[in-house]
Protein: PiggyBac transposable element-derived protein domain-containing protein
Organism: Spodoptera exigua
Amino acid sequence: NTRSSGVWTAPKGNQRSIISFTENPGLTPHLRFSMCCESPAAFHKLMVSDEIFELIADCTNKFALEKIAHSNEASKFARLLGTLIKNRKHLPKTVISTKLKKGAYIAKESTDGITVMKWRDKREVLVLSTKHSTGFHTVTKRGKIVSNPKIICEYNRAKAAVDSSNQMAAYSTPLRKSVKWYKKLAIDLLLNTAIVNALTLYKNVTKKSIQIVDFRKQLLEHLCQKLQEPEVLVRPRRIKYVLSKRDGMVRVARRTCRQCYKAIAATMGSKIAKNKSQKVITYCEQCPAKPSLCLPCFNKLH
């Protein structure tokens, strides 16, 4: 039930006072100490737990905004601000039905501090807030000073981070039109939302600058390594050496056996080795230099 516990009246500023939330001062140093050298995959793993997905689902559900705001336990939640769809139940009818000119607004506020405002700039915008009443800010727009509601100014300032996140997620996005909606939802959470959050945390902890496309590539390489099959080592085939004969006349084709020459030259000298070494017409065709070899030396060498 989204019915307000109070009555819709003219805005009076009944919003409850709030306490600003602060970051745990020990969290960032802990992550910098424990994960400063971790890969992008380690940061992405932090983002895919069930608890994180539950928070994402709760905090991005647009239709839950009114339900939480109108709850009797609204004081336990942080202040809420967001846009509304005009056909939702239990909204003040005067705000919904009134036609506005450019720059005009109409607002109603319940006794428990919930403000519903409709304001028209280029088009009508319907917003709900448990933090603001009907205050205005002066802003510079295209060189002109204009007055905008505080609700709209803070909503645009907060939504800028969402727009930046959506822009980052659009680079090399895995989403495709042909994918069914429930598969697309899972892909978007795992490979867009989680990656953008992991990249932000990675930059904050490691102080390294990296583009989201390169971050995706490193994560993909890490995931693919787990699926690779171990390489099977194949022994190279043993070369089959063949003793061949040189073409031509025997007295012309004969050469000194290289191995015989080396053995004799080592003990008696090169002059004696040249005369005593066996002359053959056979050679090893598979060796790089194709040396002349006699049959005994060929068998010893190969």
Residues 243-301 form one domain. The longest helix spans residues 181-206. The chain has two domains: 27-225, 243-301. The two ends are 92 Å apart (CA to CA).
